Amino acid sequence: MKQIRNTLNKLGPNSLRVSLAIGIAGFSAVELGSLAFLTTWKIQHILIDSHKQNL
């Protein structure tokens, strides 16, 4: 129990390790969200264009 408290005290909110982990996680989330949005947008345009051609 004492070791866990010591570890938590070392990894406070101002810790470089915690800051880097949060930054990398945030960047990854934004990157994946952007990729998903652009893929969905492109697929919708392809489906609309193919539907127009079939009409």
List keywords for this structure.
mainly alpha, single chain
Mind explaining what this structure looks like?
This protein has 55 residues and is mostly helical. The protein has two helices and no strands. It has one domain.
Summarize the structure.
87% of the residues lie in helices and 0% in strands. It is mainly alpha-helical. The chain starts with a helix and ends with a helix.
Give the SSE layout:
Layout lengths: L1 H9 L5 H39 L1
Shape: rod-shaped
Q: Describe the biggest sheet?
A: none
Number of domains: 1
Q: What count of helical segments does DSSP give?
A: 2
Name the helix and strand elements from N-terminus to C-terminus, one letter apiece. HH
Mean pLDDT: 87
Structural class: mainly alpha
Q: What Rg, in angstroms, do the CA atoms define?
A: 22 Å
**Alpha-carbon distance between the two ends:** 70 Å
Spans where pLDDT lies below 50 across 5 or more residues: none
Strand percentage lies at under 5%
Write down how many β-strands occur, each being a DSSP E stretch of 2 or more residues: 0
Report helical residue fraction.
Answer: over 70%
